[in-house]
Design a protein that fits this description.
Blueprint (H helix, E strand, L loop, with lengths): L1 E3 L2 E3 L5 H4 L8 H11 L12 H11 L5 H17 L3 H8 L13 H4 L11
Antiparallel strand pairs: 1-2
Helix pairs in contact: 2-3, 4-5
């Protein structure tokens, strides 16, 4: 198994798909990286030579990924919470941030439903 940015890349998958296991790299960025590194995207990750792996690592290092990206996203959320923006208050309350309705959905953010005694419609 090859390691890129501290993430184990699965050997059995095409390198185009295997790169998406790294946080911050999707399909389009994966294709861009492979094109710049001059690596065939249809090659399996286990078949890559050391030279190709080095070129891919160099290309991935040009982008913000893994720990640095996670840290930046968390800092942005903390900043919104500190300045009491609408999105920041939604983060504090554990409610959906991007305008979804909450009176009958949003169980992912709100958690398990709470029963209220004697509530009838």
């Amino acid at each position: 198994m090859a390691r890129i940015k501290g993430v184990d890349i699965p050997n059995g998958k095409r390198i185009e798909i295997a790169l998406t296991y790294i946080y911050g790299i999707g399909r389009s960025l994966s294709n861009t990286i492979l094109k710049d590194a001059k690596v065939n995207p249809n090659k399996k990750a286990g078949e890559l030579s050391n030279d190709e792996l080095v070129r891919i690592r160099d290309e991935v290092n040009k982008y913000l990924t893994e720990g640095d990206l996670r840290r930046e996203v968390n800092m942005n959320i903390k900043t919104k919470m500190e300045i009491n923006s609408y999105q920041g208050t939604r983060h504090k309350k554990g409610l959906p941030v991007r305008g979804q309705r909450t009176n009958r959905n949003a169980r992912t953010r709100k958690g398990k439903g709470k029963t209220i005694a004697n509530k009838k419609k």
